[in-house]
Write a structure and sequence with these properties.
With 120 residues, the chain is α+β, with helices and mostly antiparallel strands. The protein has 4 helices and 2 strands; from the N terminus they run ααββαα.
Length: 120
């Protein structure tokens, strides 16, 4: 689907009016709170996966970047999950956490988030 000139202009004006909402830098919100219900499960501490020295350097760089942006903070939690680096189509890497073990002890939310496509 292609947009006409008028539609593109309207979208550009809308995005311009909400510049703080659309940022290239990730951030935090105080507009919502989320918790994960694990009932009385003992903390799960999964061992990190073995990675190459290049991957280790990339992981450390990503962690430092996220610390500087204020997206993460140092933790001393008893819970831990391993990191994986997934290549993106453009050649960059995506920093991902493996939460399989956490998901196994998580109780599902009775009121899940509505589907975005239905909201739009």
């Amino acid at each position: 689907m292609t947009l006409g000139r008028m539609q593109r202009q309207q979208i550009q004006e809308l995005c311009t009016s909400y510049v703080p909402t659309f940022s290239a830098t990730p951030g935090l919100t105080e507009q919502a709170y989320h918790s994960i219900d694990t009932d009385n499960a003992h903390p799960i501490r999964a061992q990190p996966y073995r990675v190459s020295s290049q991957a280790k350097t990339a992981i450390e760089r990503e962690i430092q970047d996220m610390l500087q942006m204020g997206v993460i903070r140092p933790s001393h939690s008893a819970w831990a999950s391993p990191v994986v680096l997934v290549p993106k189509p453009d050649g960059e890497i995506r920093f991902c956490m493996v939460y399989r073990k956490l998901n196994a002890v998580t109780h599902p939310d009775n009121y899940p988030m509505p589907r975005t496509d239905e909201l739009l």
